[in-house]
Q: What sequence folds into this?
């Protein structure tokens, strides 16, 4: 399973193309617009949840940390949204198809306390990073650079690791509860992701590196497996048996 | 009343001093720490309210605008907070004395719909700008630069003017309701500001340019008058008789 940590190489030389060259293919263009749309709404929704969850903070310093994460998500949203405008797409229209899935994810996973909120922030940030990295290798040079730039800006979640470890040390039973919670988060994320994959053909085809009509569902499954494995390792490192 | 629009000149040559020189006076130092603390918590609380009020947005584009304002408030918070750390003060401790007043202000003025939220964002942003400008002239060169830098970054609220004008055009009765609301916002803001002034001697003394024991309450009143007048003019320009 060692090699499954690495995103698969893209089968085409897409990475050497500029956006203008690559977007001449309307299916590719549609896929990237979908991708930027789902990422943009993902960041906007994450902003809202983090801003909301910051209310659960036990003190001002912790609140400021979560608010800093929220603000970083907004910066990501802003970069993605400006990119959509730059390629003559309406950001709102690009985001619309993904609103229901992402809102549903957040509705299903509203944290009931501060620690659950921290875990969610950490898990969300990490899964997003993994997904950005997976997808960057399948994109033209310009889109890839944007996605990696946005990704590069994360890392705000390091403070979560400290806080969660301290909480488990203080009360080991907390670990069991949070491990369940982390599993539930991943389950809901996968379930909504599968819904998006089923709905959006062009996006899904691109994600698996396909160019023909239809796509390889097994390859989507393998991408989800890699992300799940990375999640499991992170949770173990955090002291949570996932 | 013409001249009352301009902040009064500071009576001392404080503006020509660096922070190190000025902060040798412990009362001045305490006043600036208070000031940075109240501004920082003001920005943090504004972030939270804007993020919350963004939920009332009728569409994604409007939501993104309010979220952009929230994110700007966070950047201000961050700059003020880093400044406090830089001068060896704990940002949390500096903010604590102002939490109750600012939270109470926001509790008393939770918008009941999107337009009320917009007006509040606009009024809040504008009053904050006025206050920053008033206070900048009373500060040492380094603190003044910081305050003006933070101020310079605003201006996100221009989109509010359009939206509110359009709403009043569509239904003139909206104007009456929003005018009342704007008046209430200003009333609550003044009432909480007076509470802060009464509680924090060093800060109040600095605000009125005093250096002795005690301060001139009438001069604080004049500062509040200037800010209220500017507010009234803005509301009139918006089509709201304040």
A:
């Amino acid at each position: 399973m060692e090699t499954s940590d690495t995103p698969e190489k893209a089968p085409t030389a897409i990475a050497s193309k500029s956006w203008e060259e690559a977007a001449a293919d309307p299916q590719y263009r549609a896929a990237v617009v979908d991708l930027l749309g789902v990422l943009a709404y993902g960041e906007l929704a994450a902003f809202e949840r983090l801003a909301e969850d910051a209310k659960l903070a036990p003190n001002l310093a912790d609140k400021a940390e979560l608010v800093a994460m929220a603000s970083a998500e907004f910066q990501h949203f802003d970069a993605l949204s400006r990119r959509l405008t730059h390629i003559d797409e309406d950001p709102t229209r690009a985001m619309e198809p993904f609103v229901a899935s992402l809102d549903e994810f957040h509705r299903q996973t509203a944290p009931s306390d501060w620690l659950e909120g921290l875990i969610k922030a950490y898990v969300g940030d990490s899964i997003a990073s993994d997904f950005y990295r997976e997808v960057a290798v399948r994109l033209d040079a310009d889109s890839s650079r944007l996605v990696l730039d946005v990704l590069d800006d994360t890392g705000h979640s390091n403070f979560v690791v400290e806080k969660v470890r301290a909480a488990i040390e203080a009360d080991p039973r907390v670990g069991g509860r949070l491990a369940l919670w982390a599993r539930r988060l991943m389950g809901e994320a996968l379930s909504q992701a599968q819904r998006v994959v089923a709905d959006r053909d062009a996006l899904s085809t691109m994600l698996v590196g396909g160019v023909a009509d239809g796509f390889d569902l097994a390859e989507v499954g393998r991408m989800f497996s890699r992300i799940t494995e990375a999640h499991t390792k992170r949770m173990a490192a955090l002291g949570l048996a996932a």
